[in-house]
Design brief:
The protein has 213 residues and is an alpha/beta fold. It has one domain: Alkaline Phosphatase, subunit A (3-Layer(aba) Sandwich). Strands 1-4-2-3 form a 4-stranded parallel beta sheet, with helices on both faces. It is globular and about 50 Å long.
């Protein structure tokens, strides 16, 4: 009887050790999720049919909203392009940087000049955190960031400089490829920026135009 009891105890211990070892192995094998950040330009919450806009049809965005989490109280740190992108990349308000006066955007450098960034900022950008976590970094589309914060300098591989429809196709092609490591992909689209400006140009006449002067 004692032998049987000891055998059962021994068996139970072996099973517990096996379960523990299995759990540790599973923890090591846990695959980190790929992250795809789709970033549109100058889009407010009202610019989607899923938020009640009856003049727009946005099935792709509606699908994401329906099958994920939609935040109804989320705000940008700045309504202007480059400062908002600075905050997204660094997690800091734009006022924390010694930015010179704003200017017209030049290529992908954005509409602000930041001569340099501190080592603290360099090591706490979203790029730095994700690289430390073992992610490959990829970026496609509009950048408009000051030189020290350009995605290419921070370690992103630029897969496309296109900002419009072709960008979506190129990113979809990339997603279908085989990837050994988890990846973080930014898909930065310029619209509805251009759509809004074209609407203003074509339909919102100035007072001078209305008066024929």
């Amino acid at each position: 009887m004692m032998l049987q009891t000891n055998l059962l105890k021994c068996s139970a211990s072996i099973i517990c050790l096996a379960i523990a070892a299995s759990g540790l192995a599973q923890q090591k094998m846990v695959k980190k999720p790929n992250i795809i950040f789709i970033f549109t330009d100058q889009q407010s919450a009202s610019m989607m049919s899923c938020t009640g806009n009856k003049y727009l049809h946005t099935p792709a965005m509606d699908y994401i909203a329906e099958n994920g989490i939609r935040f109804t109280q989320a705000y940008t740190s700045n309504p202007v392009c480059t400062p908002a992108r600075i905050s997204l990349m660094t997690g800091r308000f734009c006022g924390a940087f010694s930015a010179k006066d704003g200017r017209q955007a030049r290529g992908n450098e954005g509409a602000m000049t930041i001569p340099t960034i501190s080592d603290e900022v360099k090591t706490t950008t979203i790029a730095a955190y994700l690289k430390k976590a073992g992610y490959d970094l990829f970026y496609g589309g509009k950048r408009h960031l000051p030189a020290p914060l350009d995605p290419a300098i921070l370690g992103f591989k630029i897969i496309s400089n296109n900002e419009r429809d072709e960008l979506a196709d190129e990113c979809a092609k990339y997603i279908k490829e085989n990837h050994i490591k988890p990846y973080y992909l930014t898909v930065s689209l310029i619209n509805p920026h251009d759509i809004c400006y074209m609407a203003l140009r074509d339909f919102a006449k100035t007072d001078q135009e209305k008066n024929g002067t």
